[in-house]
Write a structure and sequence with these properties.
5-stranded parallel beta sheet, 10 helices, globular, single chain, alpha/beta
């Protein structure tokens, strides 16, 4: 576990620099320039590397659920985001009104959608249609799904692939099982595990030559309270990271979004800059703090001291050690949010949107 975590940390730092540069290059490259094609392809590979790193860490240590109320329509439309850019697969949505909501972890459920969609696309390597639908299901006991009686949101993913042989259906969620034409392996195993942690299950029906349908059952919640934060800007952000290249790239990304930035190499320097800015009447509105600083004060101690100075300090913790207890239970350590490395500019923007809702542009 320590070895895997260390490798993931170093890899995520490198990927963070690559993704940051790609995000900026995509913006400044002339519209229609051929380089966009290569930048998009590079970004895709980096995100795949990030997903695989997260997958290994998920296996080495189970992640707790951070639940919120999520609408079925949001989940169904989000699934389309995971269709590879070079895929010829088309999406069809069947979304009836009054679908039940779910009380779930958006990040982890996103992985479930991603793995199932990728699996469907692999089943249709040339072209085809992926039909994604939702419906309300009331399950009684006893049932063949091995779930307790209750109300469930059912999300169904029907592909037009070659189908799965009957003798393989019982093995589809086994680790490393590979069906011809499908990269099942660990990804479907993790998807099944995540849904089980939510109190649901995944059912598979398939007919050779006609296609396969994955049905995800998630316990229904009662109401939909998810709200999207408005974009904020004109705030001051202090970046703390021991990697100069990370500080430079993050500063450029935040500057492009509309934030004013300053940087520090460790916790002591960050505290000095924070206090000075506060005394001068031009305080920082938020901080992005690296958890682990080589040979210096890291994020945990830095935010502890900052809290003593300013109880209202707003800090986001970031690290490649995504299975670190502080990254998982960040609020217990004084942080407002978490951004695992590597991250794209959009992910960074969403995190600051979340903690700076009251900051007007």
């Amino acid at each position: 576990r320590l070895f895997a975590g260390g490798v993931a940390h170093d890899l995520n730092n490198l990927l963070n620099a690559i993704l940051g540069n790609i995000s900026l290059a995509q913006i400044f490259a002339p519209p229609g320039d051929k380089c966009h094609k290569y930048l998009d392809a590079t970004e895709k590979v980096c995100l795949q590397a990030r997903d695989f790193s997260q997958l290994l860490l998920s296996i080495s240590r189970g992640e707790p659920l951070e639940k919120e109320i999520i609408s079925a329509s949001y989940l169904i439309h989000k699934a389309e985001e995971f269709i590879p850019a070079d895929s010829q697969v088309k999406c069809v949505f069947l979304i009836p009104e009054n679908l039940w909501t779910v009380d779930g972890d958006e990040v982890q459920l996103g992985r479930v959608l991603q793995y199932i969609v990728i699996n469907a696309c692999q089943a249709m390597p040339k072209e085809g249609t992926l039909t994604i639908s939702g419906d309300n299901a009331e399950i009684d006991e006893p049932n063949t799904l091995a779930v307790p009686a209750g109300k469930f949101l059912r999300l169904s993913f029907f592909d037009q692939g070659s189908g799965i042989p009957r003798e393989h259906l019982s093995k589809i969620f086994d680790p490393y099982f590979l069906n011809k034409g499908r990269g099942c392996g660990l990804f479907l195993t993790i998807a099944y595990s995540i849904v089980k942690k939510h109190g649901g299950t995944i059912d598979v029906a398939s007919e050779e030559g006609k296609g396969t349908c994955f049905s995800v059952y998630l316990p229904a919640a009662q109401s939909f309270v998810k709200e999207s934060a408005e974009t904020t800007s004109c705030a001051r952000v202090l970046i703390m990271d021991d990697e100069e290249i990370i500080r430079e790239i993050v500063a450029e990304m935040l500057s492009f979004i509309g934030y004013e930035t300053a940087s520090a190499g460790d916790g002591r320097e960050a505290i000095k800059l924070y206090v000075k800015a506060k005394e001068e009447g031009n305080p920082f509105d938020a901080l992005l703090i690296d958890l682990n600083i080589a040979g210096g004060m890291g994020g945990r101690e830095a935010v502890r001291r900052l809290k003593a100075i300013d109880p209202d300090v707003k800090a986001i913790v970031s690290s490649g050690f995504t299975n670190d207890p502080i990254m998982i239970n960040y609020k217990e350590y004084g942080f407002c949010d978490v951004v695992p490395k590597p991250y794209k500019m959009q992910e960074l923007n969403r995190a600051f949107d979340k903690i700076l809702k009251d900051k007007k542009a």
